[in-house]
Amino acid sequence: SVAHTSKVEANGCNNTHVNDNMFDKESPQDLLEARRQLPVYMVKKRLLEEIKKNNTMILIGETGSGKTTQIPQLIHEQRIEGAGTIAITQPRRVAAITIALRVAAEMNTEVGSIVGYSVRFEDVTSPRTKVKYLTDGMLLREATLDPLLKKYSIIILDEAHERTVSTDVLFGIVKLAQKERNEEKMNPLKLIIMSATMDVDAFRKYFNNCPVIYLEGRTYPVTIYHSKMKQDDYQYAAVCTIFQLHATTPANHDFLVFLTGQEEIETVMYNIKQIAKEATGPPIRVCPLYAGLPAAKQLQVWRVVPPGTRKIILATNIAEASVTIPRIKCVIDTGVVKERTWCGSTGAERLMVRPCSQAAGWQRAGRAGRTAPGLAYRLYTAADFKARHYHHTPEIVRCPLASTLLLLIAAGAEPTTFPLIDAPPPDTVKASLLLLKELGAIDNDTNPKLTVLGKKMSMFPIDPKYSKILLSATEYSCLDEALSLVAVLSSQNLFHTPVYKRAEALTAKQKFLSPLGDHITLLNVFKAFCKAPLKKQWCRENYLNHKNLTYACEVRQQLLAICQKLNMNVSSCGQAYEQLLKCLLCGLFTNCAWLRGVGAGGRYVTAGGTAAGLHPSGSLHTVRPLPPALLYTELLQTNRCYMLTVSAIQPQWLHQVAPEYARRCRANR
Ligand code: ADP
Ligand code: MG
C-alpha cells in the first residue's frame, strides 16, 4: 500500500456557479449555453477590445477557461481577421485534432470548412478555412515556404509554456514576420501568445513589453497529498492508490492518472481491469488518453458513463494543459514524464523517463479542481517535489536541433543570430550543424547554405535523417522499400500486443520475423498488409494495428508524391535487403552500436558510449551469435537503456556510407 501524508492546499478559490452537466448534451444551442459559462465569456468585451487595439499580447488563463476553443471563435465572430486566416498552434497533434473537432461542433459546422486543422500528413482545411488549428511543427514548415506567413492575419501561439523547439523557433519567426510586414506596409500580423502558467517576464521582454492580460480563473481548492516514502515502482504505486481510493470514494468521482506513454498506459489499464474483478467499489470504466490513440477512442474520455460507474482516465502529460477533461475529482500524479534528450558529441538521441517540473506538478493537481474541490495524490515525497526545478527546461536546450536548423536555414534565417528566448547550448548548435553537414544538407557548418540535397531534404515533412534515407535510395535501388519503411517508422507501433494475449500475438508475429532484424520484419508486415484483401480482419487475425498500418499507407503516398515531384526513380531491391540496410545507414549513421566482449558477456555500446540492450519485443532478441554491429532507430532509457527497432549490420558498412562520421566516431572512442 502507498501511504500518503502532508496535506497542501493548492490554488486559491473563487467559486461560482457549477453546471456539472454541461458536457453531456451536444446540441449547438446547449453547447452555446455551456460556452457562455466559461471564464473568457465574462471578459469577452474587454478581451476583444484589447485584441483589436494591440498587435501583440500575452494572454494567461487557467486550463479550461476557454482560451483555445473560444478565443478564435470570438475573433472570427467579429471578423477581426479580415481577409486573412486565424492560425492557432498546438504542440501536440492530438490536441490540434480534438480541439478542431470540438470547435467545429460548437460552430455547428463540419471540420474542414470554416474550421480546420493541419497536422503532419493530414491537412483538413479548405480555401474557406478561417480558423485553423495546427501543430507548431506544421506552422514552422509553412514558414519555410513563406517566412512572412502572409495568409495569416492573426497567429495565436498556444501552450507557450510547453516551450517545444518548434514553438520557441516560431516566437522568432512570427516576431520577424510581424516586423517586416509592418515595415513593408503589407497586411499587418497580430500575435497572441497564450498559456496557462508561464514565465511572463521573459516573454514580455522578448515581445517588446507587450501587454499581458490575465483571465480570471474559476478553480476550486485541491488538497494535495504526498507519498510518505519514496516509491520504487510508480506504476505499481499508481495501481495501489487507485484501488485504495476506489474503495472509499463515491462512484461519481472520476480519477485522472498521469503516466508516461502508451505501453505503460496499456499495462496499467490491464492491471486495473484484472484487479477490478475482485475489488470492492463501483463498476469501473478505464479510458486511455495518449497521442497515438485513434481520435474516436480519445473522445471516450469526454463521453458520459452510466450513473454509478467510475471513470478512470489514464493519460500522458497531454491532459496536463492541452485538453480539458471535466468532472475529475482525484488526480494521481506519478511525477514523471517521458522526454527526448540527446548526446551532442555523437548525435545519438534517447527517450528518458524523468521527474517532471514543479509547474507540471501544480498543473496536474489543478486538473482535480475544475468543477469542484478535489484531491491530488503525488506518488513521490514532498521533499522530492521541493527539490525539483520550478519550470522544466525548454526543449531547445536539451534536444537535437538538426531538423529545426534545416528548416530555419531553408526559411532563409541565419541560425547564429536568430532571436530566441533561450539560446540552445552552443555545442548543440555546433553538433547539429555538423550532423547536417555530414548528412550532406549544408555546405559548411560555420556560415551554412543549403546544398541541392539539403533543399530536397527540407521538402520532406520528416526528420532529415529519414529524408536522407529516401534521397539515398535511388543509389541503392531500393526506393520502393525505403518509402515503405520510412512511412512505417513515421507512424506508431504496427503490432498490437494485448497484455492478456501476449503469447498469441507473439506467435502471429513469427511469420513476419526476419533474422536480419526489426526493419525487415516491419517491411514484411507492411508488404503483407498491402496485399491483404480484407485488411481489417487480416489485422485482427495477425495482431496488427489496422489504424497505424492504414496511416503508414497514407504517409507512404505523400512521401511518394514528393519523390515523384523530384523525378526520383522508384525501384525495388527485391530480396537484396543488404542494399536497403546500407541505405538506412545513410541517414541513421549516428545510431550504431557495437558488440563488446564475447559469448554471454557480450554487450552493445552505442557511439555515445552508452551500454544498451536489445528490447525483448525485438526480432533480434533471441538471435545467436549476437551480430557484431547494430543499427537502431531509437534509444529508450527507463531503468535500463534499450535499443528499439534494430537491425544487424556489418561494422565496415559505416565506413562505406558515412566515412566522415566513422572517422569522427573512432577519434571519439
Ligand atoms: P483552455 O484553452 O483555456 O484550457 P479550452 O478552450 O480548451 O480551455 O476548453 C474550454 C472548455 O471546453 C473546457 O471547459 C472543456 O471542458 C471544454 N471542452 C474542450 N474540448 C472538449 C471536447 N472535445 N469535448 C467536450 N468538452 C470540451
Ligand atoms: Mg488550451
TrEMBL record:
What SMART domains does the entry give?
DEXDc, HA2, HELICc
What InterPro entries does the entry give?
Answer: DEAD-box_helicase_OB_fold, DEAD/DEAH_box_helicase_dom, DNA/RNA_helicase_DEAH_CS, HA2_WH, Helicase-assoc_dom, Helicase_ATP-bd, Helicase_C-like, P-loop_NTPase
- Gene Ontology cellular component list: nucleolus
> Known EC number(s)?
3.6.4.13
**Helicase ATP-binding domain location, by residue?**
48-216
Catalysed conversion reaction: ATP + H2O = ADP + phosphate + H(+)
Q: Which CDD domains match?
A: DEXHc_DHX33, SF2_C_RHA
Q: What does the record list as GO biological process?
A: positive regulation of transcription by RNA polymerase I
Task: Kindly state which keywords UniProt assigns to this record, in alphabetical order.
Answer: ATP-binding, Helicase, Hydrolase, Nucleotide-binding
Enzyme type, top EC level: hydrolase
**Which superkingdom heads the taxonomic lineage of this protein's source?**
Eukaryota
Indicate yes or no for the key word Nucleotide-binding: yes
GO molecular function annotation: ATP binding; double-stranded RNA binding; hydrolase activity; RNA helicase activity
| Limits of the Helicase C-terminal domain | 241-413
> Could you identify this protein by its name?
RNA helicase
